[in-house]
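USER: Note each token:
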Amino acid sequence: MRVLLPLLLLLVASSCRLPARGLPACEQAAPAMRDLERDAEQLLAEGQAEAALVHLERVIAAEPGYFRALRAHQDALFALGRTAAAEEYARGLVRERGDAAAHALMARVSADQEEAARLLERALELDPAFSWAHLARGVAAARENRFRDAEESLSEALHDYPEFDAALLARAQVRDQLADFEGAAADYRAYLRSCGGDTQALYNLATILHRELHRPDEAEEQYRILLDIDEGMTEAVVGLAVCLTEQQKFEAASRLYESIQHQEPSALFNLGLLYQEHLGRPEDARRCFEEFIHWKGPRAENQSDADRLIYAPVRLAELERQLGGQEPRSREEE
């Protein structure tokens, strides 16, 4: 299942690599400070907000205009439950600097949506090209299911900063919602050029290529890249096996299903189909469907009632007729 429309309060950027040139002013920082900010984002993702805050205070002292660090600093305060401190910090920046970045940060701590919208409008009056304000407007519109407005704002965010990773990711998700699958795939590819370690984005791209654009060969490539990063992602193993099946690579698909048949019920069901329909192994198919119906393993939530109560029993009845009703072999006989 694709994960869509994250809140984007935290952008985990440890795997992202920002280009060294062509950055807007709010993204410019010395390479060492950009690296330290990415380390802080990773610490935040791992639940180490105090350690992240120490890094971010150092970055901000050296690069007071680096918006990613200011934003992450705010997120670290949120994670520590220091909401009042985050609000006061933003108010202080509005008083001291009064620039677009300060107003965008103030919008993030506002509990009043109308006030937050006004603050973002003010940020864009001060700097019409401030990409983070356009991003925030786009995310807010997407949360309200105003996907056309969201796409427009996110495109504005990318107008002067075409490699803006957070906006590319958000627009990919919005375009998916709009059924613009070519556009979504293009945005995911652009995003992954700088954030290639984002396994969820890789999975979303693979599923769009596979299920929406019907390009199993391209989807196969993305699934393999993903599994090189996280070989234990069973959803990706199943996706890759389905792609191989569609390309009539049945033996290769069966090996993938066999590797996770005790971890993922959909793999067991699909393996039964492969054995029955393509590999001429009816007894193995019967065993798969029986185990699927009586599944005792993990991820039971991935087992649909239709498959368990209707389709698997129908397949099992077909196999029983084919095999003459004989009892399945015991594991010792196998």
Observations:
- The radius of gyration is 25 Å.
- The first helix runs from residue 31 to 45.
